[in-house]
Amino acid sequence: MSVGQNPWVRPYVLTGGRTKTKHQLYVHTLVSAAHFDARAAAQLTPESRRLYDRVRLGPQSVAELSAHCGISLGVTRVLLEDLASTEHLQINDGAYDSPFDHRLLKRVIDGLSELG
Amino acid sequence: MAFPSSADRPALNVTSAKIVVAGGFGVGKSTLVASVSEIPPVNTEAWMTQAGESVDPLSDASAKTTTTVAMDFGRVTLAPDLLLYLFGTPGQPRFWPMWDDLCRGASGALVLVDTRQLDASFPAVNYFENDSDVPFIVAVNLFDGKLTHSLEKVRDALCLDERTPLVTVDARDRRSTAKALVACLSHTMKTTPTRA
Ligand SMILES: Nc1nc2c(ncn2[C@@H]2O[C@H](COP(=O)(O)OP(=O)(O)OP(=O)(O)O)[C@@H](O)[C@H]2O)c(=O)[nH]1
Ligand SMILES: [Mg+2]
Fold this sequence. Notes:
The structure holds two protein chains of two kinds.
Chain A: H1 11-14, E1 30-32, H2 38-42, H3 46-55, E2 60-61, H4 62-69, H5 73-85, E3 90-92, H6 102-113
Antiparallel strand pairs in A: 1-2, 1-3
Helix pairs in contact in A: 3-4, 3-5, 4-5
Chain B: E1 15-23, H1 29-36, H2 45-50, H3 60-63, E2 73-79, E3 82-88, H4 96-103, E4 108-113, H5 122-130, E5 136-141, H6 151-158, E6 166-169, H7 174-191
Parallel strand pairs in B: 1-3, 1-4, 4-5, 5-6
Antiparallel strand pairs in B: 2-3
Bound molecules: guanosine-5'-triphosphate (GTP) and magnesium ion (MG).
């Protein structure tokens, strides 16, 4: 069992003591990688490596990454931000500033209407 | 170590949107999410160990938390560059603080009710009326396929503002769920400025 799955290891240890993220990462914020670098991956801590490996599958939300990698939401947020600052990953800001942007809402409504 | 930053392929800027599915215990939240989701229900075991942290990420207090929480979310790819996420809210009162985290950045909320246990969804209605800026609608889950109480009676019992849309849904049915989600976002459109 790795540390990331051990409830007895304080999250503090996994993140090198950092407790805050700079950006608000929503549970649905998407993370992606433009390319995969195996050599860089080998130097990551096990938790960061799991996240990095998982992102190879395509853009995924913070919640999916947390759930699939077995890393709690809070730790996932800190580690993803680190991986983004070292350019391993990109945090997709999306095309719209607000969740209420009518262009976004219209697109989602149109997409849902075609689901039926 | 510097990571080589030359992009092999430009990452498509995929956008995500989120709708929150709230409501009391057993009203059909998971069923509704699963009816449209393209990913299987996520195994929440690992997530559960420390999910309490999300309230106050990584603080000492939360590090002691071994709270478990069952959470479901689903994903719908609407276009190559557009994903919709649905998040069910955990029903038990002790998880309410987590709702803030789940609701942040949501485009809308769907509060599900079961007319056989309307009171189970009171807290969810209260939350979106008083404690959240996320526009919401209420959907009656038609468990037996038909409406047992008129929508007017349901509205009265919930003390629901007349401006809050009240619709019916069959949570097991993909098309019906999609329709309810459309109603939810249409309400957001009506209640927010064009360039919010
Ligand atoms: N007949 C019928 N059964 C339903 C419908 N929706 C949900 N159910 C059933 O009702 C039960 C509860 O549904 P869930 O989707 O698990 O409800 P939930 O809101 O996620 O419940 P909790 O997460 O425990 O609060 C399950 O056994 C479902 O199969 C429906 O529209 N019709
Ligand atoms: Mg459920």
